[in-house]
Specification:
Layout: H1 2-6, H2 10-26, H3 28-38, E1 46-47, H4 63-69, E2 76-82, E3 92-101, E4 107-110, E5 116-117, E6 125-130, E7 150-153, E8 158-166, E9 180-187, E10 211-214, E11 218-219
Parallel strand pairs: 1-8, 5-6
Antiparallel strand pairs: 2-3, 3-8, 4-7, 6-9, 9-10, 9-11
Helix pairs in contact: 2-3
Length: 225
């Protein structure tokens, strides 16, 4: 907290601003390194909704990102952390999902602010599953995603979803203190692009990886009674 108290000094605020501007010019990896020196030690990435949208995918894509997104193995990795089960019916379970780009290219993924719970209704995106059963593939039919639903992870970049799951939406299997949860990401469409104006298309799809990937399962401990 000492770092943040110092920012009450106008000179410190100006200094941090200039350092961040320098990092933006130097590149996203430098900016990420700078942020991690300012934020607490348990910081693992920027919030996923801070990432750039996938604008104009017909013209602008990473060739390395396209290459890894066409592989069977997912370029996206996941990690999940959880707090204890809520002790009251009006409580909630705190969950943090880290979405990881395991490649050296810029990788797009389907972004929905609301995390899918359980199997959901076949949606594409990031979710939380209860138990160890394999997560089913997405069943929703998608032709093309709007730019706001595609976010871009830079090379080796992480982003985080912070989720509060109300008690009433938790699976009963978690009530023993030995139940497990895991994070998943799924998508069933590379995403089509449409031509705007007379400029010829460079890419005919949005470059999204297709498949299902899961994190390791973690046990949800009982909360204080």
């Amino acid at each position: 907290m000492r770092v943040f108290r110092r920012t009450q000094n106008p000179n410190a605020v100006a200094g941090i601003f200039l350092l961040m501007m320098l990092a933006v010019i130097a590149g996203p990896n430098t900016l990420r390194s700078l942020i991690t020196t300012i934020l607490p030690s348990n910081y693992t990435g920027v919030p996923c909704d801070w990432l750039r949208n996938g604008d104009d995918r017909a013209q602008h894509q990473s060739l390395i990102g396209r290459s890894v997104s066409s592989d069977i193995e997912s370029p996206i990795g996941l990690r999940i952390e959880t707090g204890p089960l809520p002790a009251t019916a009006d409580g909630s379970l705190a969950v943090t999902i880290t979405v990881i780009n395991r490649s050296i290219g810029t990788v797009p993924f389907v972004f929905n602010p609301a995390v899918i719970l359980g199997g959901g209704t076949g949606e594409n995106g990031v979710g939380v599953a209860f138990g160890t059963a394999q997560v089913p593939a997405a069943s929703n039919v998608v032709n093309s995603y709007p730019a706001s639903q595609i976010h871009l992870l830079g090379p080796r970049q992480h982003c985080i979803y912070s989720v509060q799951i109300p008690s009433g939406q938790l699976d009963p299997s978690l009530g023993t203190g030995a139940g497990v949860i895991k994070a998943f990401y799924r998508n069933n469409s590379t995403g089509a692009v449409t031509q705007v104006g007379t400029e010829p298309l460079i890419y005919t799809d949005q470059g999204l990886w297709v498949g299902v990937v899961e994190s390791a399962a973690v046990t949800v401990p009982l909360g204080a009674q």
